[in-house]
Amino acid sequence: MPTTFAALAVLIFLLPGFVTDRIIVSLTPQRSRTDFRLVIDSLVWAFVDEVFYTVIALRLGLQQFPMGFAPEHPEMLFEGHTLSAVILLLTSVVVGLVWSCLSVRGLVFRLLRFLGITRSSGSVDVWQDVFRNYRGAWLRAYLQDGTTITGWPQFVSDDCDKREVFLAEASFERPADKEGGTEASADVVSNITELRGPGILLTERAEIVY
């Protein structure tokens, strides 16, 4: 907890940035961050939130929040500023939602690439690039033991350190199938075995080669 009222005012200034950052982290793929980087990102978003709030406050005739106060009257920090606090909170939520939408769709970096400012896609890595730009394509996974699984990538992990994909309408071909073997619990069409059920989840333990 803050030990001084000044520290409390600083914390209140930073809180909208933490709210914005938390929304963005929850809705978009992220690289791993240190605690120091988290604080820096939240500080940046707090400044952005404060800029938007200032514009809104000037239009509505509201005062800045948090306001200055005398240490002997700490209750003045919140007195009469309920509406300002609510609008500042809503501003931080909207900023987080809008930025998340722009990031997921890649619109910001698409514009920057069009202007020749960068070549970056803005994604965490190529894993995200592929599944974001080629959602309308079937996927074929080749496993370490020679099994080939083909399906529709319905769900894909956002964590770049945990490669997982769920293939719907999946079928597979094992090395034994190529020699005439079949699976008793599956429907066999030629040498391709169609899986029963909604699909198959491939985790890192599946040992995908490519």
Blueprint of the fold:
Elements: H1 5-27, H2 35-60, H3 82-105, H4 107-114, H5 126-133, E1 139-142, E2 148-156, E3 165-173, E4 187-189, E5 192-194, E6 199-202
Antiparallel strand pairs: 1-2, 2-3, 3-5, 3-6, 4-5
Helix pairs in contact: 1-2, 1-3, 2-3
Task: Describe, in short, the structure shown.
The chain has 210 residues and is α+β, with helices and mostly antiparallel strands. Helices cover 42% and strands 15% of the residues. The protein is built from five helices and six strands.
Q: What do these coordinates show?
A:
By secondary structure, the chain is of the alpha+beta class. Helix content is 42%, strand content 15%. The chain has five helices and six strands; from the N terminus they run H-H-H-H-H-E-E-E-E-E-E. Strands 1, 2, 3, 4, 5 and 6 form a six-stranded antiparallel sheet that branches. Helix 1 runs parallel beside helix 3 (82-105).
- State the distance separating the first and last CA atoms: 50 Å
Low-confidence stretches: 182-190
Shape: elongated
> Rg from C-alpha positions?
26 Å
Order of helices and strands: HHHHHEEEEEE
Structural class: alpha+beta
For the report, how would you describe the main beta sheet?
Answer: 6 strands, antiparallel
Give the beta-strand count.
6
Strand content: 15-25%
